[in-house]
Amino acid sequence: LSEIDFVPAPNFAGFLSKAKSMAPHDKDAPYVALALFLECPIFSGDKGLLKMKEVKVYSPRQMLEMLTSPV
């Protein structure tokens, strides 16, 4: 767990309303809000999330390619 940072929900709660308007499903809104707060991409195979333009979403295939491609 030393490499995992837990982000308390109140830290990114300010992004939740924007995330709800962007996310394809309500259940995805907290993940989108966290990505907005951290200014980072999301890793998901969810087709709805992969269509998002406002937050970069990497598919499992894209992540595998990034992890296995030579530097």
Tags for this entry?
mainly alpha, about 70 residues, two-stranded parallel sheet, globular, about 50% helix
Explain this structure.
The protein has 71 residues and is mainly alpha-helical. It has five helices and two strands. The chain has helices at 9-12, 16-22, 29-38, 47-50, 60-68, and strands at 42-43, 57-58. A two-stranded parallel sheet has the order 1-2. β1 (42-43), α4 and β2 form a beta-alpha-beta unit. α2 (16-22) packs across α3 (29-38). The N and C termini lie far apart (27 Å).
Give a brief description.
The protein is mainly α and 71 residues long. It is 48% helix and 6% strand. Strands 1-2 form a two-stranded parallel sheet.
Radius of gyration: 13 Å
Provide the helix percentage. Answer: 40-55%
**Could you spell the SSE succession in H and E letters?**
HHHEHEH
State the secondary-structure class: mainly alpha
Put simply, the count of helices is 5
Rough outline: globular
Main beta sheet:
2 strands, parallel
Strand content: 5-15%
Instruction: Please identify the oligomeric state.
Output: single chain
> What is the count of β-strands?
2
> For the terminal residues, how far apart are their CA atoms?
27 Å
Q: Which stretches are low in confidence, meaning pLDDT under 50 for 5 or more residues running?
A: none
Average pLDDT, all residues: 94
Spatial order of strands in the largest sheet: 1-2
